[in-house]
Amino acid sequence: MAFEGLSERLQETMKKITGKGKVSEADVKEMTREVRLALLEADVNYKVVKDLIKRIKERAVGQEVMESLTPGQQVIKVVRDELTELMGGEQSKIAVANKPPTVIMMVGLQGAGKTTTTGKLANHLRKNSNRNPLLVAADVYRPAAIDQLETLGEQLDLPVYSKGTEANPVDIANEAIEKAKAEHHDYVIIDTAGRLHVDEDLMDELQQVKTNMNPDEIFLVVDSMTGQDAVNVAESFDSQLDISGVILTKLDGDTRGGAALSIRSVTGKPIKFAGMGEKLDQLEPFHPDRMASRILG
Ligand code: GDP
């Protein structure tokens, strides 16, 4: 299960403080030391941990705790609030264009789960918001990726616009948007090319698609199992493309939690959804408060 180690350690730490009728500075010091170690072990970015611990410390020795009737529980609330804030605070909703279709560009490295997530997102929009999305296969370098999206479209009974590997991604995306307007699709979700590593050609191509499409959302799909690498990938994509949000996949796996806890703070971009399994209905809106509660038990 995701966050297992982190969760166990933090719960252990919180147990020590929970019933305390008085919380001393020494208690806070001990608690923050343990929280710090647990987060570092979960592969949370060093600087993120440092800032977080500073905030927790300041609040935990402050008035809100000292004047509380249940100081131990108040300290735990501080930790919960700060973890929630770290992951973005409020849940971040998906954009809706003033004039349909809303255009979503999906980007990410190969293997992160981009194509699967494209299908999942379309399914989510149809099921939960009654939308009528059009999927677009714009990874023209990998016939397998196009086939994969077409298969997903068949499984979901949703249309997929594709032109094989001969056309260029900008033309494909433009034509898809025209088709969406003509056929009244309110969302267009473009599955763009992925590579094994971030490289200049890929970024150039994605920038061209972005400039042409002027998408309402650019979602970066990252594999939460890759920890700090996921954070580095997010930083590079964001610096090149100014992404609008992150979708974290494989949160059903035994990820330590580093990516989920660092990405928002490092990139400033919200985590919008979490992939919770391979099935097409296993995509969930990301709720920072629920995630923090899950971690703290
Ligand atoms: P792409 O290369 O980025 O398009 O990646 P794919 O969509 O082909 O996904 C790569 C693998 O990750 C596939 O086996 C997917 O089933 C799997 N996958 C994607 N999202 C999730 C998820 O949230 N949880 C799990 N367990 N597997 C996932």
TrEMBL record:
Taxonomic superkingdom: Bacteria
Q: Where is it localised? A: Cytoplasm
Provide the E.C. number(s) assigned to this enzyme.
3.6.5.4
Q: Where GTP is bound, by residue?
A: 108-115, 191-195, 249-252
Major site of localization recorded for this protein: cytoplasm
Domain SRP54-type proteins GTP-binding residues, every copy: 270-283
* Keywords tagged on the record: Cytoplasm, GTP-binding, Hydrolase, Nucleotide-binding, Ribonucleoprotein, RNA-binding, Signal recognition particle
Tell me the enzyme class: hydrolase
Coiled-coil region(s) at which residues? none
This enzyme catalyses: GTP + H2O = GDP + phosphate + H(+)
Signal peptide residues are none
Domain observations:
Composed of three domains: the N-terminal N domain, which is responsible for interactions with the ribosome, the central G domain, which binds GTP, and the C-terminal M domain, which binds the RNA and the signal sequence of the RNC.
Please state which protein family the record places this protein in: Belongs to the GTP-binding SRP family. SRP54 subfamily.
What does this gene product do? Involved in targeting and insertion of nascent membrane proteins into the cytoplasmic membrane. Binds to the hydrophobic signal sequence of the ribosome-nascent chain (RNC) as it emerges from the ribosomes. The SRP-RNC complex is then targeted to the cytoplasmic membrane where it interacts with the SRP receptor FtsY.
Fill in the subunit field for this protein: Part of the signal recognition particle protein translocation system, which is composed of SRP and FtsY.
The protein's name: Signal recognition particle protein
Supply the source organism for this entry: Alkalibacillus salilacus
